[in-house]
Amino acid sequence: MAGQTALIIIDMQKGMRSIALPPRNNPSAEDNIARLAAAWREAKQPLVCVRHVSRSATSVFAPGQSGIEFQERFSPLPHEHVVEKNVPDALINTGLERWLHARGIQQVVIVGVSTNNSVEATARTAGNLGFMTTVVADATFAFEKQDYAGNVRSAEDVHLMALANLHGEYAEVRTTDEVLTALSY
């Protein structure tokens, strides 16, 4: 990866570990996100931590709820940029696009949760805005979901479909190892 590349970690908050959530896929996603964050910090590349702040008082992501807090291993360092969002897309009404442009950052790598929601929404917008966008398949995860016809789709199916929606159109989909190799060049 040439030049500055921002790692954008989406919604790795305590609320994402709630037992009330549906089954998920990719149990190693958090380990892969942590590997990427450590490599980004070592390479002195920009790291952005995105947090969802719900407008619903009953949400686990509402202000004052413990679920809104970053999971300990994904807490931003003092010099890292924090973005708070109220919708799935981290580039809508947050100032993130301006922050990236002000630093001359043209490449973004997106990880976090959930693949078919905030990750996909952010990657679509990033691609549409002209950023060279990468989504890291094994550093994201999704939850089981009922489709429009009423069929329950496994978390893995939801995850893979979201990645298929993005790959080659809005972003390139890569693995953690592929991204780490590219970072070292």
From TrEMBL:
<dbReference type="InterPro" id="IPR036380">
    <property type="entry name" value="Isochorismatase-like_sf"/>
</dbReference>
<feature type="domain" description="Isochorismatase-like">
    <location>
        <begin position="5"/>
        <end position="156"/>
    </location>
</feature>
<dbReference type="InterPro" id="IPR000868">
    <property type="entry name" value="Isochorismatase-like_dom"/>
</dbReference>
<keyword id="KW-0378">Hydrolase</keyword>
<protein>
    <submittedName>
        <fullName>Isochorismatase family protein</fullName>
    </submittedName>
</protein>
<dbReference type="Pfam" id="PF00857">
    <property type="entry name" value="Isochorismatase"/>
</dbReference>
<dbReference type="InterPro" id="IPR050272">
    <property type="entry name" value="Isochorismatase-like_hydrls"/>
</dbReference>
